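Budget justification note: compute hours in this period were largely spent on complex prediction jobs such as the one shown. Inputs:
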Amino acid sequence: MFDYSPAPEAKLASFASSYGHFIGGKFTKPQKTFETINPATEEVLSQISHGSAKDVDLAVKAARNAYEKTWSKLSGAQRGKYLFRIARIMQERARELAVAETLNNGKPIKETRDFDVPTSVAWFFYYAGWADKLDYAGMGASPKAHGVAGQVIPWNFPLMMLAWKVAPALAAGNTVVLKPAETTPLTALLFAEICQQAELPDGVVNIVTGFGDTGAAVVGHKDVNKVAFTGSTEVGKIIARQVAGTNKKVTLELGGKAANIVFDDAPIDQAIEGVVNGIFFNQGHVCCAGSRLLVQESIHDEFIKKLKRRMETLRLGDPMDKNTDVGAINSKAQLQKIKGLVAKGVKEGGDLWQPACKIPRNGFWYAPAIIDGVSPANTVAREEIFGPVLSVITFRTPTEAITKANNTEYGLSAGIWTEKGSKMLKLADQLNAGVIWSNTFNQFDPTSPFGGFKESGYGREGGRAGLAAYLKGGN
Amino acid sequence: MRLDVKKTYKLFIGGKFPRSESGRSYQVSDSKGKHLANVSLASRKDVRDAVSAARSAQPGWAGASAYNRGQVLYRIAEMLEGRRDQFVAEIQALTGKTAKQANAELDAAIDSWVWHAGWTDKIDTVAGSMNPVAGPFFNISTNQPTGVVGAFAPQDSALVGFVNTIAPAIVSGNTIVVVTSEKLSLPALSFGEVLATSDVPGGVVNILSGKESELSGWLVGHMDVNAVDLEGASKPAELELMAADTVKRVLRKGSYERLGSSGSLQHILELMELKTVWHPKGH
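Corresponding output:
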């Protein structure tokens, strides 16, 4: 092994010292502020406003007003052109957005630059084209928007989750009130500026920052017609209860505990890369992460040996360094959660291994980990860790692999590694998961529907299904 | 003079006709209040037995070819047609409908099975997709059944509402536990006999009669139920709260107005899950 010289990205993003909410096309005066930090350094980046129920009410009123007076009266073609404009401006400011995301989230710049931002842009381009083609969405002729959409998004892909929510909502003709995650509000606030630059009519997009209570106020507001949430299953259940008995339409993208199944006839080197990508991409802060490795017993020893060798080459450190593979854990709370669950998994009989790596002095860090010899009842085989921790389970037959893979309350994604097409197709039919990656992992595209079975939520994002979720007559 | 041989109305669970495990029954009267039958009053244990039967039957039913499921559903229509007189008589007695009206209800029920039978092998043609992703991947989305559905048939319909609760669920490979209308339960219970002679595997449809308000909590709260249809439920908001505990899919009360009361593709799809499979393209 050899060392890499540092290759830091330039700090091409700057932030105001404090931010208010973005309501009715304007930023409000910052109030009740809290710090937002860089989790890699703990440096304070800006002061963010903690939205109250009153702020949410103003945002919903602005969204309702924009819906009634402007947005619902525009033709689909004109709405689409606004979305194309937004996509273009995001491309123009792509590097700035990537840097901002890395600073606020802690994820490596190579991921924000090559994945988060381009995927976000692609989402706007894709749904821009749908805006004047709603008759083809499968909801009959001239389908109508719901009205005001309340959207609450997580901290793992802050800008991309915004794009997944805002682009289809606007294309379908809704106006939105969006609540970004408390630890990662900055790219959403930059996006507000982009809406201004695109001259998007005031109130079509409103952004209220804050904590869980702010999100609850968005979901619970009586004039919100459609609720879209991405986050934990725990909060998803609270939201499902909150909307019970109302007419609100809901889509939920919740947690996962994906099985990444490796057969003895798999392309092993490719599978190693896929397993590493599946769990260590974005520090494992991915709802569809391949967090359970199901490896066929006959190749277990050889596979784990190769996997460990590959993990030793992962570079953990400064997220702004272009060579970094594993960045910072997003928050102190998340780091504590990961440590707690791993300790439990070891206590319950798991065998923990982590490569030696230098942990920076400041910030929140967790070295990539595998826990071998995990029994199906072990906490780390059942609970979502949402960190760079891979639980290893073995199986002997395809039937056993299916039983073990499906033995979870979740059903978001799964991976299959085999060179045998017929085996793959049968397994894909039998796996209870909304997205199945075969001989690949963690692929996303706006044309491709994404979402889960069972407690991983309901509704889909991406594709025609993702559009239908924002139209009346759809679910 | 010859005395009629009357039928004992029992539950339909796992392809068998048990009485309620609780030993309870309740009286069903005709439209004028005259006693017609003592019907099984299902209990919590019956709900659990029914869900267990539905779960066991689900992979096999979903795994049957769409062509095969279509044939089985068409067979239901055939069997229902053959027992027309029995159902017309039950509908008339319960509702006071004329023979013409009762026959029209039966027509609608039979035709609904024919309509659904034709859908099994067309759902993915219409509602699936090949997705043109920006990379070297084969990417396909297909619809798969959600799993076990717990349903409450409309209270005001003797047969056609019941049929249009079951058909959209099982057409795609779901299995169902359905609670009949409490007062109009006889045709729904007789329908078990149609299913039993239609090549429908035991456990695909499980029929419970009784008090919806007593059974609904047990059925909606059951951990092994994936989706609930609350059309015929009396406390839908309370049940939706329970459904949230395991993120069940919910067809709210009043959904049939949106979905069409005689079944629709959207109704079928709301009891299905879109599954997307990626595979690299290359050499």
